Amino acid sequence: MGFEIGCFYVLLKLVANDVVYYDFCYGLPSSSTPFADVDILLQVSLLRSSCVSESSFLMTSKTRSAHVSEAASSALTLAAITHICSRRLGNYTNSDERVAAEYEKYHLLERQGVIIGLRLMERLLYREPVFGRTSTDIARYVGYTMWKAIFGKKVDSIKAIDSTYHLSDNNFRWLQGFPQLKTSDCVQTLESSEDDGSTDRYTEEPVGSVSHRDVLLYTVGIIKGATHRLLGESSFSVTGTHTKEGETFFSLDFR
Amino acid sequence: MSSSAQRLASAVQLGNAAFDNNVKMSAEFLALTYGALVQQMVEELTQEDDVEHVNQQLYHMGHRIGARLIEEYSVRSGAAPCRTFTQAAEGVALVGLRMFLGVSAEVTQVKDAADTFAISFQDNPLALFVELPDGPLRECLWYSNILCGVITGALSLVGLQTEARFSRDKLRGDSKNEIILHFKGRERETFQVERN
């Protein structure tokens, strides 16, 4: 029901107003799986794309590259992450409840990142089409085009090992001001199914209600969203890692 | 050129220089991040018509952001400390908004009120690609209310107690965006420098 209402509303709006760009403020229908969210968002993106036509506005929009201070954008991003993390803070009656709440937080962080990434992809590809679809092309798109749009700079290095590309940022902007890791060698965003069972490596020191892992998960979501349409039928996984030495890298695995 | 006009021109120059010297990035990413945030807040409403709650959330979030950005403003804008409400309003409108958002704003004193100013601007980078649907959102949501929080949060860190609120919004069909900035007072200096 929610799905139908949501999609109907979008369609009605597009047809009624012949809107070229539209970003509705009513929520997407709730969904129990991240993939469904992405699929719905993709449908919306495609709907919007089909309405695009050449016009003076679009030409202006395409050529005009408005900028803002990176400091303001980073402040907003961290506030958005904090908003997600501060939800449902409270006393848990048992560890199961705590684990469930934590899982929901991680899901929301990545989902929100995916939403933003999907929309960013649309803007970036419109302005700078990516003609190749190889893993190298995608890694460069993330490390150069996407990083430039988000942080005003490129990643510091891209290293390929077999089918995995490691995009390294020596001073990741969104983790500046976070404490250095002490009890762990690194923090990663590996899915729980890939957890090697060791809990020590996930010991970290939250800053208020936000941890290193929270920031990494949000960024991983953006990367997933921003690359979704480039992948076609390929499988793809993204892992964020922050080390004790202060290096942050995102691994794109194309196996 | 009167001293007032000279000061205004100087503030505009400072704003432009501060913006030019920034690390800059895509305004689109800022707009998309903000849009997803507002959308999430609207989704979380337990009552659909309680849009004022979103306004308050945005304001409080902005207040915390402003408390962080004022440090960057102080260090990097080159603006002199504000000694009058007028100077503070000009700092916000002509330097701060320009430095962080690339916005060219105007500031005018509200008639017959020495402590109230109107800050108006045409382009709003937070509202790129945004259209509000008819209904409670269009009627009650001040989409960019986070800006009001940023302004009051920043000014509170330099001892100025203020209120800021949107009075016009292009997303609602107005011809421009306008924030009314009202100075309520100045806090007594609490930081004492020891003089030997």
UniProtKB/TrEMBL annotation, chain A:
It comes from the Eukaryota. Pfam families: TRAPP. One of its GO terms (cellular component) is trans-Golgi network. SUPFAM superfamilies: Ligand-binding domain in the NO signalling and Golgi transport. GO terms for biological process: endoplasmic reticulum to Golgi vesicle-mediated transport. Belongs to the TRAPP small subunits family. BET3 subfamily. This is Transport protein particle (TRAPP) subunit. It comes from Leishmania tarentolae.
UniProtKB/TrEMBL annotation, chain B:
GO terms for biological process: Golgi vesicle transport. Its main location: endoplasmic reticulum. Keywords: Endoplasmic reticulum, ER-Golgi transport, Golgi apparatus, Transport. GO terms for cellular component: endoplasmic reticulum; Golgi apparatus; TRAPP complex. It is found in: Endoplasmic reticulum; Golgi apparatus, cis-Golgi network. Homodimer. Belongs to the TRAPP small subunits family. BET3 subfamily. This is Trafficking protein particle complex subunit. The lineage of its organism: Eukaryota, Discoba, Euglenozoa, Kinetoplastea, Metakinetoplastina.
